[in-house]
Structures are given as structure tokens and as C-alpha cells.
Amino acid sequence: MNIYEAIKALAQYALKENLIEKEDYTYSINRLIEALSLDSFEDVEVTKDYSLEEILGAILDYACSNGLCEDSVVYRDLFDTKLMGLLTPRPSEVIKKFNAKYEKSPKDATEFYYNLSRKSDYIREYRVKNDMKWVTPTEYGDIDITINLSKPEKDPKAIAAALSMKNSAYPKCQLCRENEGYAGRVNHPARQNHRIIPITINNSDWFMQYSPYVYYNEHCIVFNGQHTPMKIDKSVFGKLFDFVKLFPHYFIGSNADLPIVGGSILTHEHFQGGNYTFAMAKATVETEYSFDGFEDVKAGIVKWPMSVVRLSGKDTNRISELADKILTSWRAYTDEDAFIYAETDGTPHNTITPIARFRDGQYELDLVLRNNITTEEYPDGYYHPHPEYHHIKKENIGLIEVMGLAVLPSRLKNEMEVLKDAMVNGSDILADERIAKHKEWADMIMSKYEITADNCMDILKKEIGIVFAAILEQSGVFERTENGKTQFLRFLDSVK
User: Fold this and answer.
1) Cβ contact 76:218 at 8 Å
2) How many C-beta neighbours within 10 Å does residue 255 have?
3) What is the DSSP string of 116-185?
4) Radius of gyration, CA atoms only, the chain
5) Which residue from 176, 174, 170, 171 is spatially nearest to 225, judged by alpha carbons?
6) In this predicted structure, what is the pLDDT of residue 496?
7) Spatial CA neighbour of 492 closest among 294, 358, 236, 238
8) 168 Cβ neighbours under 8 A, 6+ residues apart
9) Strands 362-371, 350-359: parallel, antiparallel or unpaired by DSSP?
10) Looking at the whole model, is its pTM more than 0.85?
11) What is the spatial distance between Cα 452 and Cα 430, in angstroms, rounded to a whole number?
12) pLDDT tens by residue, 127-145
């Protein structure tokens, strides 16, 4: 496909996917011509129904060949986002249509908005589809496992360019509202095709967007209009419920507000939600508990590898009041027998990961107890993946993992292929630096199963799921034992 066919195909794609109206067609072609520094245009026939990936690929190849764009993944992403931004409706149009659909139903509004985010290439579907996903049955339910491949690795050219760039304070971070329409740079993604939806939470301005990497269905991010740090306090519970009341078909949760157990961006208050039911939400209450003065709020310990208190009822204010009591008690709680310390040398360790949802006419709030203490033996965190599992995952356990979806590093895709070949062929695993770290784990697997070329990858996937469940157990502040349950109940008894 030549550049004229590619431009026309892109305009036709935008028309078909309702990014532009038919009255915008010629105008849009002219905008693309301008962006590609063309002096003229030939009205050629589009010979087939090309995918968006094919169309943008042809245009990017032309741009790179003609000195309009550096031929590397970061620069290509900056350039094609600029092109898609020319075809994405203006923010006011998107908000107006979203609000009109919301009048009919919140679900209609989010379906429209999610589709726009996908078809505008803000969510790069052709990359997301390459993510590896599977389910591992465990005693806690079906755990979701993903190896995320949709976030591109930075190339050497972009890394070098970023090092030579001056630091920019605009936008302050990748969550700020100022990202909408921003051209980006080599160390900050382009967002010309990014649109955000204003909502009111806690009587203040907040915004909703979708994650460009969609770890699960309709993975949304809800962020404060002000660049203010993450903080878990009583107001957070009300904010989560405010969102659930606006979008009762979505869950919403917050990362914790301390390093190690917190999310990647602690400098900007934000939540994550979406239209998905995680294994933790399906998990049942295994031990009911009644808090004095809150008999109208059902409570209990959830059957889950991490330490979770579930509260439910019809009155969100009452749930929030009880949650605040639990949080306040937990912040100050020390139990040396359970190796729980509220603080050491003035550094606080206890916090909570909260998740809210509306189900069967009741509001639910899950409070996951977190602690970020480190030791000489566990410098990355005691309630964190332990070293014996770092070959699978060393990164923090954030909100998404807490709920039962493993987001594993992209390196594992290639490592599993290499490891499979070594295990099937009897090769020396230690001799290959790519997989030497998996040696002890692989030996355990080979002693457990009869390995063949046909079953090896399925077995590796299953065992990765088992490792992730064990990592969640390590991240739980109370052990999944009778003694751990006694310690858990002792904390609940301390809540006043």
C-alpha cells in the first residue's frame, strides 16, 4: 500500500469506527496530508480492508523513509499517536456523548467510552492481544495470570535521547489531567488521542480514563484533578463508594499509600477499577465477625491468601465508619508474635489496600491489611515476594495482584520457551544464563511430572500460577494457619 492509499484507508477506518463523521472525511484527509508534509494527494482506490496496525505501519514506514520520524518504537509511537489525535473527537464532543449515554445507563456510557479508547488507538489492541493470559485453579479459586507484552521496551536511541533531555515538570506525572492531548516526548508518552471523563467524587473534581495496557476488561483509572499524593484515610472509603454509586457495574480499589506495598505512582491520588470480577471478589467469607455497635454491617475474614476483612451492608456511611476504625487500629497495631510492627525508628509500616463494589443489592468493602517492613534477610520487604520466587516475580504486589491477577514481567515469555526446550531435551539449565535462575524450580517440576514436549508449557504455566498463589500468601500479614487465624482475630478484637 502506498502513502496515498494508507491515508485514505486511515480516514475510512476513522469513519467506520465513528471517530469522525462523513462531513469530516475530506477535512481529515487534508489534516493527514499536512502532518506527513505532502504537497499533493492522489485519490487512489483502497484495495482491501486493512487493519489499523497495517495502515499505521505503512504510514510510519513512509514517515521514517522520508525523514519525518526516527525508525524506533518510541519515536514511531509518538508519530502515530499524533496522527490518531487528528482523528479523535475533541474532548467536549466525547464528554457530551458520554453524558447523553449515561442518561440512558452508566453501562452504555462506559461501553461507548471504552470503544472510543480502543478504536482511537489509545489502547493499542494489536499489542494487547499479544499478552499471554491463562488461569490456574488454586484452593482460593481460579487465579488469573498474565505476562504483559503490550508495553513496549524503550530502545537505545530513545534511552540516549531521554538522558540528554532537560527535566520537564509538565505534565507533573502521567496521571495528570494535562496529559489529555499532550504531544509527548521520548521520556513521556504521547497522548493526542487521549480523552478523559470528568466526574464528581467527594464533592471535588476527579476524572476517569482507561489504562492503555488494559490488564483486564475495561480497566479504568480514576484520578484526582489535583496532583496530590496517595493517602489512605476515611475519605478514601467515601470516594470509592461515590464512584461505585456512579458506575455500579464497576468495582473500584486503591493501592496502598506506602512504598513496597503501594502502587507505582504514589505522588498522584488515583484508583483503579473496571468491569471485571476477580478471584478475590468470588472468594467467600470463611470466618464471620461482629463488631460492637456495627451489627448492621456484616463482617468477616475472607478465604484468600492475603489478609482480608470484608464489610458489607446497605449504608455506605456506616461501612466507611467501621472501615475507618479498622484502619485507625491497624495503623497503630503491633503484634510481635505475628511479626507485625506499626513502626520502626519512626517509620510507619501498616496500611490498607481497599476495594469497593456493589453486589446483590449490597455495598461491599474489602480491606486488605498491608505491612511494608523490611529485614536484613528480606530487604525488598518481608510481606513481599521472597527471594526463592524472584525468578518469577520480584516486583511489588499492588492492587491488581492483591485481587488475584498476576502481572508478570515480559521476560518470562522467552524464558519459558527456552526453559521448556531445556527440560524436554535434557540440556544443562545452569549453562544458559537466560534460565539459570529457574534451575531449582525446574528440577522440582521435573521430579513432580513426566515432562514431554506436548505437556511441558502447560505444566510451566500451572506451576507459575502456584508460585503466584504462594507469593500472595507471603504478602499476607497473617499466615494461613490456625495460629495465623488466632492472630488475625486478636487484631479484630483490638478494633475499638
Assistant:
1) no
2) 25
3) HHHHTTSS-HHHHTTSEEEEEEETTEEEEEEE---SPPPPHHHHHHHHHSPP--SSSSTTSGGGTT---B
4) 25
5) 176
6) 87
7) 294
8) 185, 188
9) antiparallel
10) yes
11) 20
12) 888 899 999 999 999 999 9
